[in-house]
Design a protein that fits this description.
Belongs to the major facilitator superfamily. TCR/Tet family. The chain is an all-alpha fold. It is 78% helix and 0% strand.
Protein backbone atom coordinates (compact mmCIF):
# COMPACT_ATOMS: atom_id res chain seq x y z
CA UNK A 1 0.00 0.00 0.00
CA UNK A 2 1.43 3.40 -1.01
CA UNK A 3 1.07 5.92 1.81
CA UNK A 4 -0.36 9.39 1.09
CA UNK A 5 2.28 12.07 0.59
CA UNK A 6 1.72 15.06 2.86
CA UNK A 7 3.65 18.32 2.66
CA UNK A 8 5.23 19.70 5.81
CA UNK A 9 2.40 22.24 6.13
CA UNK A 10 -0.21 19.51 5.72
CA UNK A 11 1.50 17.37 8.33
CA UNK A 12 1.47 20.28 10.77
CA UNK A 13 -2.23 20.95 10.13
CA UNK A 14 -3.09 17.27 10.53
CA UNK A 15 -0.97 17.05 13.68
CA UNK A 16 -2.94 19.96 15.14
CA UNK A 17 -6.20 18.10 14.57
CA UNK A 18 -4.78 14.91 16.05
CA UNK A 19 -3.47 16.83 19.06
CA UNK A 20 -6.97 18.13 19.79
CA UNK A 21 -8.37 14.60 19.58
CA UNK A 22 -5.59 13.28 21.82
CA UNK A 23 -6.28 16.07 24.28
CA UNK A 24 -9.95 15.09 24.27
CA UNK A 25 -9.16 11.49 25.20
CA UNK A 26 -6.53 12.32 27.80
CA UNK A 27 -8.42 15.15 29.50
CA UNK A 28 -11.30 12.89 30.46
CA UNK A 29 -9.51 10.67 32.95
CA UNK A 30 -7.49 13.60 34.29
CA UNK A 31 -10.56 15.77 34.86
CA UNK A 32 -12.47 12.94 36.51
CA UNK A 33 -9.65 11.87 38.88
CA UNK A 34 -9.87 14.85 41.29
CA UNK A 35 -13.66 14.53 41.32
CA UNK A 36 -13.68 10.83 42.25
CA UNK A 37 -13.77 11.29 46.04
CA UNK A 38 -16.76 13.64 45.67
CA UNK A 39 -18.47 11.40 43.10
CA UNK A 40 -18.11 8.38 45.37
CA UNK A 41 -19.38 10.36 48.33
CA UNK A 42 -22.42 11.50 46.33
CA UNK A 43 -23.29 8.22 44.61
CA UNK A 44 -21.77 5.93 47.28
CA UNK A 45 -19.61 2.83 47.19
CA UNK A 46 -15.91 2.55 47.97
CA UNK A 47 -15.99 -0.89 46.33
CA UNK A 48 -16.91 0.80 43.04
CA UNK A 49 -13.90 3.14 43.06
CA UNK A 50 -11.81 0.96 40.77
CA UNK A 51 -14.71 0.31 38.37
CA UNK A 52 -15.24 3.99 37.57
CA UNK A 53 -11.78 3.89 36.01
CA UNK A 54 -11.63 0.18 35.15
CA UNK A 55 -14.89 0.31 33.16
CA UNK A 56 -13.43 3.06 31.00
CA UNK A 57 -10.03 1.42 30.54
CA UNK A 58 -11.50 -2.05 29.97
CA UNK A 59 -13.83 -0.82 27.23
CA UNK A 60 -11.07 1.16 25.52
CA UNK A 61 -8.78 -1.87 25.80
CA UNK A 62 -11.28 -4.15 24.09
CA UNK A 63 -12.11 -1.54 21.45
CA UNK A 64 -8.54 -0.54 20.60
CA UNK A 65 -7.56 -3.48 18.33
CA UNK A 66 -11.02 -3.40 16.76
CA UNK A 67 -10.70 0.29 15.87
CA UNK A 68 -7.17 -0.32 14.58
CA UNK A 69 -8.32 -3.07 12.24
CA UNK A 70 -11.40 -1.11 11.12
CA UNK A 71 -9.08 1.74 10.19
CA UNK A 72 -7.04 -0.64 8.02
CA UNK A 73 -10.19 -1.88 6.31
CA UNK A 74 -12.53 1.13 6.14
CA UNK A 75 -10.12 4.06 6.20
CA UNK A 76 -8.77 6.17 9.07
CA UNK A 77 -11.00 9.20 8.60
CA UNK A 78 -14.43 7.64 9.00
CA UNK A 79 -13.42 5.38 11.88
CA UNK A 80 -11.63 8.20 13.72
CA UNK A 81 -14.55 10.62 13.46
CA UNK A 82 -16.99 7.89 14.51
CA UNK A 83 -14.93 7.20 17.62
CA UNK A 84 -15.07 10.89 18.57
CA UNK A 85 -18.86 10.87 18.24
CA UNK A 86 -19.20 7.79 20.47
CA UNK A 87 -16.91 9.35 23.06
CA UNK A 88 -19.02 12.51 23.18
CA UNK A 89 -22.25 10.51 23.58
CA UNK A 90 -20.73 8.65 26.51
CA UNK A 91 -19.57 11.91 28.09
CA UNK A 92 -23.05 13.41 27.98
CA UNK A 93 -24.60 10.28 29.49
CA UNK A 94 -21.98 10.12 32.27
CA UNK A 95 -22.95 13.62 33.33
CA UNK A 96 -26.57 12.51 33.64
CA UNK A 97 -25.82 9.40 35.75
CA UNK A 98 -28.01 8.92 38.84
CA UNK A 99 -26.19 5.97 40.42
CA UNK A 100 -22.89 4.13 40.28
CA UNK A 101 -24.19 1.41 37.96
CA UNK A 102 -25.17 4.00 35.35
CA UNK A 103 -21.90 5.87 35.74
CA UNK A 104 -19.80 2.72 35.27
CA UNK A 105 -21.86 1.71 32.22
CA UNK A 106 -21.63 5.11 30.55
CA UNK A 107 -17.92 5.29 31.36
CA UNK A 108 -17.60 2.05 29.40
CA UNK A 109 -19.33 3.73 26.44
CA UNK A 110 -16.86 6.58 26.73
CA UNK A 111 -14.07 4.02 26.72
CA UNK A 112 -15.32 2.48 23.46
CA UNK A 113 -14.86 5.85 21.77
CA UNK A 114 -11.59 6.60 23.54
CA UNK A 115 -10.08 3.37 22.19
CA UNK A 116 -10.57 4.69 18.68
CA UNK A 117 -9.11 8.07 19.55
CA UNK A 118 -5.87 6.70 20.97
CA UNK A 119 -5.14 4.16 18.24
CA UNK A 120 -6.42 6.52 15.54
CA UNK A 121 -3.97 9.29 16.42
CA UNK A 122 -0.96 6.99 16.28
CA UNK A 123 -2.15 5.11 13.18
CA UNK A 124 -2.75 8.33 11.23
CA UNK A 125 0.72 9.58 12.17
CA UNK A 126 2.17 6.26 11.04
CA UNK A 127 0.43 6.66 7.69
CA UNK A 128 1.64 10.19 6.92
CA UNK A 129 5.10 10.30 8.56
CA UNK A 130 7.90 7.73 7.99
CA UNK A 131 9.38 6.07 11.12
CA UNK A 132 12.70 7.92 10.72
CA UNK A 133 10.91 11.27 11.17
CA UNK A 134 8.06 10.09 13.36
CA UNK A 135 9.81 10.53 16.69
CA UNK A 136 9.48 14.31 16.81
CA UNK A 137 5.80 14.23 15.85
CA UNK A 138 5.03 11.45 18.32
CA UNK A 139 6.95 13.52 20.86
CA UNK A 140 4.42 16.30 20.32
CA UNK A 141 1.56 13.84 20.77
CA UNK A 142 3.10 12.47 23.94
CA UNK A 143 3.62 16.04 25.17
CA UNK A 144 -0.14 16.53 24.84
CA UNK A 145 -0.54 13.82 27.46
CA UNK A 146 1.26 15.63 30.29
CA UNK A 147 -0.33 18.91 29.15
CA UNK A 148 -3.71 17.23 29.60
CA UNK A 149 -2.56 15.76 32.89
CA UNK A 150 -1.63 19.23 34.10
CA UNK A 151 -4.70 21.03 32.79
CA UNK A 152 -7.14 18.17 33.44
CA UNK A 153 -6.76 18.00 37.22
CA UNK A 154 -6.89 21.79 37.42
CA UNK A 155 -10.14 21.90 35.45
CA UNK A 156 -11.52 18.88 37.31
CA UNK A 157 -10.56 20.31 40.68
CA UNK A 158 -12.08 23.69 39.86
CA UNK A 159 -15.29 22.05 38.69
CA UNK A 160 -15.48 19.89 41.83
CA UNK A 161 -14.82 22.78 44.20
CA UNK A 162 -16.93 25.44 42.48
CA UNK A 163 -19.52 23.76 40.26
CA UNK A 164 -20.90 20.23 40.16
CA UNK A 165 -18.95 17.03 39.46
CA UNK A 166 -21.23 16.36 36.47
CA UNK A 167 -19.49 19.16 34.59
CA UNK A 168 -16.34 17.04 34.70
CA UNK A 169 -18.05 15.10 31.88
CA UNK A 170 -20.03 17.89 30.19
CA UNK A 171 -16.83 19.88 29.63
CA UNK A 172 -15.81 17.33 26.98
CA UNK A 173 -18.64 18.37 24.68
CA UNK A 174 -17.41 21.76 23.35
CA UNK A 175 -13.87 20.44 22.93
CA UNK A 176 -15.26 17.39 21.13
CA UNK A 177 -17.19 19.52 18.65
CA UNK A 178 -13.97 21.38 17.81
CA UNK A 179 -12.12 18.07 17.40
CA UNK A 180 -14.83 16.77 15.06
CA UNK A 181 -14.68 19.86 12.84
CA UNK A 182 -10.88 20.02 12.66
CA UNK A 183 -10.42 16.30 11.98
CA UNK A 184 -13.14 16.30 9.31
CA UNK A 185 -11.08 18.69 7.19
CA UNK A 186 -7.48 17.78 8.10
CA UNK A 187 -7.99 14.05 7.48
CA UNK A 188 -9.71 14.49 4.11
CA UNK A 189 -6.57 13.52 2.18
CA UNK A 190 -6.29 10.11 3.81
CA UNK A 191 -7.26 7.20 1.53
CA UNK A 192 -10.68 5.66 1.89
CA UNK A 193 -11.27 2.00 2.63
CA UNK A 194 -12.21 -0.49 -0.05
CA UNK A 195 -15.75 -0.80 1.25
CA UNK A 196 -15.29 -4.58 1.27
CA UNK A 197 -14.30 -5.00 4.88
CA UNK A 198 -14.52 -8.45 6.43
CA UNK A 199 -14.97 -7.87 10.13
CA UNK A 200 -13.72 -10.60 12.45
CA UNK A 201 -16.79 -10.57 14.70
CA UNK A 202 -16.01 -13.96 16.22
CA UNK A 203 -12.53 -12.86 17.21
CA UNK A 204 -13.90 -9.59 18.58
CA UNK A 205 -16.46 -11.42 20.73
CA UNK A 206 -13.87 -13.84 22.08
CA UNK A 207 -11.44 -10.99 22.79
CA UNK A 208 -14.11 -9.15 24.76
CA UNK A 209 -15.05 -12.30 26.67
CA UNK A 210 -11.63 -13.32 27.94
CA UNK A 211 -10.53 -9.77 28.79
CA UNK A 212 -13.73 -9.02 30.72
CA UNK A 213 -13.56 -12.33 32.58
CA UNK A 214 -9.91 -11.74 33.48
CA UNK A 215 -10.59 -8.25 34.84
CA UNK A 216 -13.55 -9.57 36.86
CA UNK A 217 -11.26 -12.19 38.42
CA UNK A 218 -8.73 -9.57 39.47
CA UNK A 219 -11.47 -7.24 40.75
CA UNK A 220 -13.61 -9.78 42.64
CA UNK A 221 -11.06 -12.36 43.76
CA UNK A 222 -10.45 -12.14 47.51
CA UNK A 223 -12.96 -9.31 47.96
CA UNK A 224 -16.42 -10.04 46.55
CA UNK A 225 -15.73 -13.79 46.38
CA UNK A 226 -13.15 -16.20 47.76
CA UNK A 227 -10.46 -17.27 45.32
CA UNK A 228 -11.74 -20.85 45.55
CA UNK A 229 -15.39 -19.88 45.06
CA UNK A 230 -17.40 -21.25 42.12
CA UNK A 231 -17.69 -17.74 40.69
CA UNK A 232 -13.92 -17.15 40.50
CA UNK A 233 -13.18 -20.68 39.33
CA UNK A 234 -15.86 -20.37 36.67
CA UNK A 235 -14.46 -17.05 35.45
CA UNK A 236 -10.98 -18.59 35.35
CA UNK A 237 -12.21 -21.47 33.20
CA UNK A 238 -14.04 -18.99 30.94
CA UNK A 239 -10.90 -16.86 30.57
CA UNK A 240 -8.72 -19.80 29.58
CA UNK A 241 -11.27 -21.29 27.19
CA UNK A 242 -12.07 -17.97 25.50
CA UNK A 243 -8.37 -17.11 25.15
CA UNK A 244 -7.53 -20.45 23.53
CA UNK A 245 -10.50 -20.12 21.18
CA UNK A 246 -9.42 -16.54 20.37
CA UNK A 247 -5.93 -17.69 19.35
CA UNK A 248 -7.36 -20.48 17.18
CA UNK A 249 -9.82 -18.12 15.46
CA UNK A 250 -7.21 -15.40 14.86
CA UNK A 251 -4.84 -17.87 13.23
CA UNK A 252 -7.52 -18.91 10.74
CA UNK A 253 -9.40 -15.63 10.13
CA UNK A 254 -9.02 -13.96 6.73
CA UNK A 255 -8.85 -10.51 8.38
CA UNK A 256 -8.03 -11.16 12.05
CA UNK A 257 -8.89 -8.38 14.48
CA UNK A 258 -5.43 -8.84 15.98
CA UNK A 259 -2.97 -10.41 13.52
CA UNK A 260 -0.83 -12.77 15.59
CA UNK A 261 1.92 -12.58 12.97
CA UNK A 262 3.08 -9.23 14.39
CA UNK A 263 4.11 -11.05 17.57
CA UNK A 264 6.64 -13.08 15.58
CA UNK A 265 8.81 -9.98 15.53
CA UNK A 266 11.08 -9.96 18.58
CA UNK A 267 11.11 -6.21 19.12
CA UNK A 268 7.35 -5.90 18.67
CA UNK A 269 6.71 -8.50 21.36
CA UNK A 270 9.20 -6.90 23.73
CA UNK A 271 7.82 -3.39 23.12
CA UNK A 272 4.29 -4.68 23.64
CA UNK A 273 5.27 -6.38 26.87
CA UNK A 274 6.93 -3.21 28.11
CA UNK A 275 3.80 -1.24 27.14
CA UNK A 276 1.75 -3.64 29.29
CA UNK A 277 4.08 -3.08 32.25
CA UNK A 278 4.02 0.70 31.79
CA UNK A 279 0.22 0.66 31.71
CA UNK A 280 0.00 -1.51 34.83
CA UNK A 281 2.39 0.62 36.85
CA UNK A 282 1.32 4.04 35.58
CA UNK A 283 -2.47 3.76 35.46
CA UNK A 284 -2.61 1.42 38.43
CA UNK A 285 -0.42 3.55 40.64
CA UNK A 286 -1.48 7.07 39.67
CA UNK A 287 -5.21 6.38 40.04
CA UNK A 288 -4.81 6.33 43.80
CA UNK A 289 -2.45 9.26 44.35
CA UNK A 290 -5.31 11.83 44.61
CA UNK A 291 -6.68 9.75 47.49
CA UNK A 292 -3.48 10.38 49.44
CA UNK A 293 -3.27 14.05 48.45
CA UNK A 294 -6.84 14.88 49.43
CA UNK A 295 -7.39 12.65 52.45
CA UNK A 296 -3.92 12.74 54.02
CA UNK A 297 -2.21 15.91 52.79
CA UNK A 298 -5.44 17.91 52.97
CA UNK A 299 -5.32 19.19 49.39
CA UNK A 300 -8.49 20.38 47.73
CA UNK A 301 -9.52 18.81 44.46
CA UNK A 302 -8.09 21.82 42.61
CA UNK A 303 -4.81 21.75 44.54
CA UNK A 304 -4.40 18.00 44.04
CA UNK A 305 -4.33 18.77 40.33
CA UNK A 306 -1.71 21.47 40.82
CA UNK A 307 0.37 19.10 42.91
CA UNK A 308 0.69 16.76 39.92
CA UNK A 309 2.43 19.45 37.87
CA UNK A 310 6.05 18.43 38.68
CA UNK A 311 5.43 14.96 37.26
CA UNK A 312 3.65 16.24 34.18
CA UNK A 313 6.19 18.93 33.34
CA UNK A 314 9.11 16.51 33.66
CA UNK A 315 7.22 14.00 31.51
CA UNK A 316 6.51 16.63 28.85
CA UNK A 317 10.12 17.82 28.70
CA UNK A 318 11.50 14.28 28.46
CA UNK A 319 8.98 13.27 25.81
CA UNK A 320 9.78 16.24 23.57
CA UNK A 321 13.53 15.88 24.07
CA UNK A 322 13.38 12.14 23.45
CA UNK A 323 11.44 12.60 20.22
CA UNK A 324 13.94 15.12 18.90
CA UNK A 325 16.85 12.87 19.91
CA UNK A 326 15.38 9.88 18.08
CA UNK A 327 14.68 11.90 14.91
CA UNK A 328 18.21 13.34 14.82
CA UNK A 329 20.18 10.23 15.69
CA UNK A 330 17.87 7.35 14.83
CA UNK A 331 18.90 5.74 18.13
CA UNK A 332 16.32 4.78 20.72
CA UNK A 333 17.41 1.71 22.68
CA UNK A 334 18.73 3.62 25.73
CA UNK A 335 15.44 5.43 26.33
CA UNK A 336 13.30 2.43 27.44
CA UNK A 337 16.12 1.22 29.70
CA UNK A 338 16.60 4.57 31.42
CA UNK A 339 12.86 5.15 31.52
CA UNK A 340 12.13 1.82 33.21
CA UNK A 341 14.76 2.44 35.89
CA UNK A 342 13.39 5.91 36.64
CA UNK A 343 9.76 4.74 36.65
CA UNK A 344 10.50 1.91 39.10
CA UNK A 345 12.50 4.28 41.31
CA UNK A 346 9.72 6.85 41.34
CA UNK A 347 7.06 4.30 42.26
CA UNK A 348 9.31 2.87 44.99
CA UNK A 349 9.75 6.34 46.46
CA UNK A 350 5.97 6.80 46.56
CA UNK A 351 5.70 3.54 48.50
CA UNK A 352 7.71 5.13 51.36
CA UNK A 353 5.21 7.94 51.98
CA UNK A 354 3.77 8.39 55.45
CA UNK A 355 1.12 10.59 57.02
CA UNK A 356 3.82 13.22 57.65
CA UNK A 357 5.24 13.23 54.10
CA UNK A 358 5.36 16.83 52.86
CA UNK A 359 4.07 18.04 49.52
CA UNK A 360 7.60 19.09 48.57
CA UNK A 361 8.93 15.56 49.03
CA UNK A 362 5.99 14.17 47.06
CA UNK A 363 6.77 16.63 44.25
CA UNK A 364 10.35 15.37 44.05
CA UNK A 365 9.09 11.81 43.76
CA UNK A 366 6.81 12.95 40.93
CA UNK A 367 9.73 14.41 38.99
CA UNK A 368 11.51 11.05 39.04
CA UNK A 369 8.40 9.19 37.90
CA UNK A 370 7.62 11.78 35.21
CA UNK A 371 11.11 11.51 33.72
CA UNK A 372 10.70 7.75 33.46
CA UNK A 373 7.27 7.89 31.84
CA UNK A 374 8.46 10.50 29.34
CA UNK A 375 11.21 8.15 28.17
CA UNK A 376 8.82 5.22 27.74
CA UNK A 377 5.46 6.32 26.37
CA UNK A 378 6.34 7.26 22.79
CA UNK A 379 9.41 5.03 22.47
CA UNK A 380 7.55 1.77 23.02
CA UNK A 381 4.96 2.75 20.40
CA UNK A 382 7.65 3.77 17.91
CA UNK A 383 9.47 0.45 18.31
CA UNK A 384 6.20 -1.46 17.83
CA UNK A 385 5.28 0.48 14.68
CA UNK A 386 8.78 0.12 13.26
CA UNK A 387 8.39 -3.66 13.61
CA UNK A 388 5.26 -3.95 11.43
CA UNK A 389 4.59 -3.45 7.68
CA UNK A 390 2.50 -0.41 6.73
CA UNK A 391 -0.43 -2.56 5.59
CA UNK A 392 -0.83 -3.77 9.18
CA UNK A 393 0.12 -0.51 10.90
CA UNK A 394 -3.38 0.02 12.29
CA UNK A 395 -3.59 -3.49 13.69
CA UNK A 396 -0.05 -3.26 15.09
CA UNK A 397 -0.75 0.13 16.68
CA UNK A 398 -3.98 -1.26 18.06
CA UNK A 399 -2.23 -4.31 19.48
CA UNK A 400 0.46 -2.19 21.18
CA UNK A 401 -2.12 0.22 22.58
CA UNK A 402 -4.25 -2.74 23.60
CA UNK A 403 -1.41 -4.19 25.66
CA UNK A 404 -0.79 -0.88 27.41
CA UNK A 405 -4.47 -0.42 28.16
CA UNK A 406 -4.74 -4.05 29.24
CA UNK A 407 -1.94 -3.42 31.70
CA UNK A 408 -3.75 -0.34 32.95
CA UNK A 409 -7.06 -2.17 33.28
CA UNK A 410 -5.52 -5.03 35.24
CA UNK A 411 -3.40 -2.59 37.21
CA UNK A 412 -6.38 -0.52 38.33
CA UNK A 413 -8.48 -3.58 39.20
CA UNK A 414 -5.71 -5.51 40.98
CA UNK A 415 -4.25 -2.53 42.79
CA UNK A 416 -7.75 -1.26 43.53
CA UNK A 417 -8.51 -4.52 45.31
CA UNK A 418 -5.22 -4.25 47.21
CA UNK A 419 -6.03 -0.65 48.18
CA UNK A 420 -9.53 -1.43 49.45
CA UNK A 421 -8.37 -4.56 51.30
CA UNK A 422 -5.38 -2.81 52.92
CA UNK A 423 -7.45 0.22 53.92
CA UNK A 424 -10.11 -1.96 55.57
CA UNK A 425 -7.49 -4.17 57.25
CA UNK A 426 -5.72 -1.09 58.63
CA UNK A 427 -8.92 0.28 60.15
CA UNK A 428 -9.76 -3.14 61.59
CA UNK A 429 -6.28 -3.51 63.07
CA UNK A 430 -6.21 -0.06 64.66
CA UNK A 431 -9.86 0.43 65.62
CA UNK A 432 -10.96 -3.16 66.16
CA UNK A 433 -13.38 -5.33 64.15
CA UNK A 434 -16.49 -3.96 65.85
CA UNK A 435 -15.63 -0.34 65.17
CA UNK A 436 -14.60 -1.13 61.60
CA UNK A 437 -17.84 -3.00 60.94
CA UNK A 438 -19.98 -0.22 62.38
CA UNK A 439 -18.15 2.36 60.35
CA UNK A 440 -18.06 0.41 57.10
CA UNK A 441 -20.77 2.40 55.34
CA UNK A 442 -19.33 5.75 56.42
CA UNK A 443 -15.89 4.62 55.21
CA UNK A 444 -17.33 3.74 51.81
CA UNK A 445 -18.95 7.17 51.57
CA UNK A 446 -16.06 9.14 53.03
CA UNK A 447 -15.27 12.46 51.35
CA UNK A 448 -12.52 14.99 52.14
CA UNK A 449 -15.16 17.37 53.52
CA UNK A 450 -16.65 14.70 55.80
CA UNK A 451 -13.19 13.66 57.00
CA UNK A 452 -12.41 17.19 58.12
CA UNK A 453 -15.53 17.18 60.31
CA UNK A 454 -14.51 14.05 62.23
CA UNK A 455 -12.78 14.07 65.63
CA UNK A 456 -9.00 14.12 65.47
CA UNK A 457 -8.57 10.49 66.55
CA UNK A 458 -11.00 9.19 63.92
CA UNK A 459 -9.48 11.43 61.26
CA UNK A 460 -5.97 10.19 62.00
CA UNK A 461 -7.18 6.58 61.93
CA UNK A 462 -8.64 6.97 58.44
CA UNK A 463 -5.61 8.91 57.16
CA UNK A 464 -3.31 6.15 58.35
CA UNK A 465 -5.49 3.57 56.61
CA UNK A 466 -5.35 5.56 53.34
CA UNK A 467 -1.57 5.85 53.68
CA UNK A 468 -1.25 2.10 54.23
CA UNK A 469 -3.46 1.40 51.22
CA UNK A 470 -1.59 3.77 48.90
CA UNK A 471 1.74 2.43 50.14
CA UNK A 472 0.72 -1.12 49.27
CA UNK A 473 -0.43 0.01 45.82
CA UNK A 474 2.87 1.71 44.96
CA UNK A 475 4.94 -1.15 46.38
CA UNK A 476 3.37 -3.63 43.97
CA UNK A 477 3.47 -1.12 41.10
CA UNK A 478 7.22 -0.64 41.71
CA UNK A 479 7.81 -4.40 41.68
CA UNK A 480 6.03 -4.74 38.32
CA UNK A 481 7.93 -1.76 36.91
CA UNK A 482 11.26 -3.25 38.05
CA UNK A 483 10.44 -6.42 36.10
CA UNK A 484 10.17 -4.21 33.01
CA UNK A 485 13.90 -3.53 33.14
CA UNK A 486 14.59 -7.10 32.04
CA UNK A 487 12.29 -6.58 29.06
CA UNK A 488 13.88 -3.24 28.14
CA UNK A 489 17.38 -4.72 28.22
CA UNK A 490 16.31 -7.42 25.72
CA UNK A 491 15.23 -4.87 23.07
CA UNK A 492 17.69 -4.64 20.18
CA UNK A 493 18.31 -1.64 18.00
CA UNK A 494 16.80 -1.90 14.52
CA UNK A 495 17.30 1.22 12.34
CA UNK A 496 14.14 3.23 11.82
CA UNK A 497 12.69 2.81 8.33
CA UNK A 498 11.61 5.22 5.63
CA UNK A 499 8.32 4.85 3.74
CA UNK A 500 9.78 2.56 1.07
CA UNK A 501 10.85 0.01 3.64
CA UNK A 502 7.70 0.51 5.65
CA UNK A 503 5.60 -0.96 2.86
CA UNK A 504 7.49 -4.23 3.15
CA UNK A 505 7.79 -6.68 6.00
CA UNK A 506 10.16 -4.97 8.48
CA UNK A 507 13.56 -6.34 9.37
CA UNK A 508 13.63 -8.12 12.68
CA UNK A 509 16.19 -7.51 15.38
CA UNK A 510 18.13 -10.58 14.28
CA UNK A 511 18.64 -9.42 10.69
CA UNK A 512 22.08 -8.54 9.43
CA UNK A 513 23.35 -4.96 9.69
CA UNK A 514 23.60 -4.62 5.92
CA UNK A 515 19.97 -5.54 5.40
CA UNK A 516 18.87 -3.21 8.17
CA UNK A 517 20.89 -0.36 6.69
CA UNK A 518 19.21 -0.75 3.32
CA UNK A 519 15.81 -0.61 5.05
CA UNK A 520 16.79 2.48 7.00
CA UNK A 521 17.91 4.44 3.94
CA UNK A 522 15.02 3.42 1.67
Amino acid sequence: MTPPRFSHREILATTAGLAIAMLLAMLDNMIVAPALPTILGDLGGLNHLAWVTTGYILASTVATPIWGKLGDLLGRRITFITSIAIFLAGSALCGMSQNMAELVGFRALQGLGAGGLMVGVMAVLAEIVPPRERGKYQGVMMAVMPAAMIGGPLVGGFITDNLNWRWAFYVNLPLGVIALAVCWFTLAKLPRGTGKARIDWTGSALLTTWITALVLITSWGGTEYDWSSPQILGLTALTVAAFIAFVVVERRAAEPIMPLTVFRNRNFTLAGTLSFIVGFAMFGGMTFLPQFQQFVQGASATNSGLLLMPMMVSMMVTSLAGGQLISRTGRYRALPIVGTVLMAAGLALFATMGTDTSKTVTALYMVVLGLGMGCLMQTTMLIAQNSAPLRDIGAATGAATFLRNMGGSLGVSILGSIYAHTLTASITSNAGPAAAASGGDSTARMTPELLRSLPEAARHLFQQAVTDGVGAVFTWAAIVAAAGLLVALAIRHVPLRGFAAATEQPQDADDTPAEATVAATA
